[in-house]
Amino acid sequence: MRILIVNPNTTASMTEKAATAARAVAASGTEIIAATSRMGPVSIEGHYDGALAIPGLLSELRDRQPAGYDAAVIACFDDTGLEAARTFADVPILGLCESAVVTAGFLAQRFTVVTTLERSRVLIDNLVRRYGMGDRAKVRASDIPVLELEDPASGAIGKLRAEIERALLEDGAEAIVLGCAGMTDLARELQEIYGVPVVDGVAAAVKQAEALVSLGLSTSKRGSYASPLPKPFTGAMSGFSSVLKVG
């Protein structure tokens, strides 16, 4: 099967990091295809960035359709554009936050999501509650701008580790979820250091995508995820007037 990993921000190095994590866990018959949005913010930190990233995300889903893919993963822990993408696509679309917290729920009664900035913490906390894990999970911010995760000299890893240690001590966390796609390369090392499950959303989403495809399941097109109604779009959005079905 072919799984498309779409980075909804425009930083190609983050796309490659996510693709590497995806390939590390993918089954032998799974091909990982990586795509970077060609328009939008260089990182996604909060609602404003997320809103402006959605057109680029949908464009990648549309433009990669002729080559074909069986499922797609949105490589942002804010689950940027997830609802729109599921409406647009006929194949399973998975978000990192939903995939990660569901996975953590299989492993621990209490867990903590450790993310980047406070503005992202609030957004992710709302997502965790929406996904039914609000009573079992706490969300913490480690005061790390996303792009600092790309800079070994930034001190970001030290901040992340300090927040994980507070989560284990103060929250009674039994597992940790890494709340940013830019942290995906750290999961195995942190799990060895702290001796608790450390869940990376990219890896979790890829394995869940494989399962859905293997089961022959995809997003329902009845009701809330029904395909968009044809209508004109104007200005910069005119390219979305003709809906190209994905699948």
TrEMBL record:
<dbReference type="InterPro" id="IPR015942">
    <property type="entry name" value="Asp/Glu/hydantoin_racemase"/>
</dbReference>
<dbReference type="GO" id="GO:0036348">
    <property type="term" value="F:hydantoin racemase activity"/>
</dbReference>
<dbReference type="GO" id="GO:0047661">
    <property type="term" value="F:amino-acid racemase activity"/>
</dbReference>
<keyword id="KW-0413">Isomerase</keyword>
<dbReference type="InterPro" id="IPR053714">
    <property type="entry name" value="Iso_Racemase_Enz_sf"/>
</dbReference>
<protein>
    <recommendedName>
        <fullName>Hydantoin racemase</fullName>
        <ecNumber>5.1.99.5</ecNumber>
    </recommendedName>
</protein>
<comment type="similarity">
    <text>Belongs to the HyuE racemase family.</text>
</comment>
<dbReference type="InterPro" id="IPR052186">
    <property type="entry name" value="Hydantoin_racemase-like"/>
</dbReference>
<dbReference type="Pfam" id="PF01177">
    <property type="entry name" value="Asp_Glu_race"/>
</dbReference>
